[in-house]
Amino acid sequence: MDTPAAKTDAPATLGKARMLHTMIRVHDLDRSIKFYTELLGMKLLRRTDYPEGKFTNVFVGYGDETTHAVLELTHNWDHAPYNLGDGYGHVALGVPDVYAACDRLAKAGAKIPRPAGPMKHGTTVIAFVEDPDGYKIELVQRA
Fold it and tell me: What is the pLDDT of residues 66-103, one digit of tens each?
């Protein structure tokens, strides 16, 4: 059976595509910036306020946007906390020591709904932490 992923006639314009960013909506921008920069060690790359649209976009990541995928935090100024729904999965971060990362994050007050340990049906060490809005961040043991 032919699936879309198996097609070989993909448009040539996508041949050199790369992931730019993932966007999530956040309720308390300052709290979210602190979580991603201070607890997860990302850099604040840029921030743009859009007064006419009443929103702010903040980009954070581990490297320059020209070579690394980053995370876009969108704050709509007059919006109540978001309902995450059931479509969102998680953002994954590779870390050298998941156990140590969880200890540090827990000491800083982060919620860790899935402590460090081998994944179910596998051996890769993972954990899940939640950001201030409840978005899941998977920590994956990387060499």
Answer: 899 999 999 999 999 988 887 788 999 999 999 999 99
d(CA 15, CA 87): 28
Q: How much is the pTM? A: 0.78
Q: Which of 38, 52, 72, 138 is catalytic?
A: 138
Q: 49 vs 54, 85, 135, CA distance in Å?
A: 8, 27, 23
User: Going from the N-terminus, what domains does the chain have, and what CATH number goes with each?
Assistant: 19-80 (3.10.180.10), 89-143 (3.10.180.10)
Reply yes or no on whether 65 is catalytic. no
- Cα(105)–Cα(118) distance, integer angstroms: 19
Query: pLDDT tens digits for 123-136?
Result: 999 999 999 999 99
CB 131 within 8 A of CB 139: no
